[in-house]
Prior knowledge:
single chain; alpha/beta; Rossmann fold; formyl-coa transferase, domain 3; 2 domains; six-stranded parallel sheet; 17 helices
Amino acid sequence: MAGALSNLKIVELGELVSAPYCSKLFADLGADVVKIEHPGVGDRARTRGPFPGDTRHPEKSGLFLYLNTNKKGVTLDISKPDGFALFEQLVTDADVLIHNVIPADMDRVGLNFERLHALNPRLVMTSITPYGLTGPYRDYRAEDMSLWCAGGVCILNGGGAEHPELPPLKTFGSQSGFQGGIHAATATIAAAFAHLREGIGQHVDVSVQESIASQLEMTFEFWPYMRMVSSRLGQKPLQPVETMECKDGYIYLCCIEEHQWRAFVDIMGNPEWANEEIFKDRLARGANWDVLKVLLQEWVSQQTVLDLYKKVQARRVPFAPVSTMGDLLNSEHLKARGFFVEIAQPVAGTHKYPGAPLKYRRTPWEIRMPAPTLGQHNDEIFGGRLGIPSARLAELKEKGVI
């Protein structure tokens, strides 16, 4: 069966994570995605690990191979007039253009919506940039660390109240790119639906900083409601809400409701200290967390993660095991769901990758082909789709255009 988006034609001009992840979500649902990379060097993701056998190779990057399944890959230097002319030909026949070229470089090469809209009025162009296309930070460059800090997450994440000397922390990997990509995908599909209704495309402006800031939950409301500034520092008013170490790993404790706390106390064998006045309710437990934490950690450290998890689940107390990567790979539940998929790539070999967190009954998600090798589909796209003669392609290759 055809994928849900099998009639959608997308051109991707992206590096690393945000634009490639956005277009991957469409490609894995059947969209026809043509990925453009710079001749010779390709997407910067090709330089990022992990690599099989820990040997660096541009065709073996785990990050690149994951982000670019089901895409056709071409090489093209759009900073050259001949290259931009070919780019315009690709865009003329596309429904969507997804890119993460920073605004200053957009201006330099002439990548602007008005120009492309004149060629293809139905085009949806999605620009994923660090700080958006307007405002005083428009032309700033930014990598993952800068964006997590700019988005407000780092100041909330780190050593916690007990370790004010430790610095703020970002999350692992290139998560700002993934967040920008998923927000861009939602915005892009909405713009595509609007095009179906109105027959005309539009420019979608996605700020990665704002994508991150939009996930800060209630942090902005703390000040007007409670006159509190959100921070990783300072004592939590309610407890227990904490990660603690068991014999064989970590578990997250959450039992702030009174019935949850009493159930957990019962599981612990009703120790005498649990009835002390300083632990009488969740606010008291929060105020005296420095004492309570020691008592709880002593008991939790004698348990195994799975045994404790099963005990509290039976009593409807919302604890959660802290999964390691090995736990996820070996999870019976994820195996039953078919979450991890094996993908064979001619250079890197066959390896497991995360699949999709969703199921379609009638229009399936599937891996139809692995990520492309650099320039793999130049002849098919430029020669077959655009009709460029072989002699002309050879000339463009000689000039470094493709």
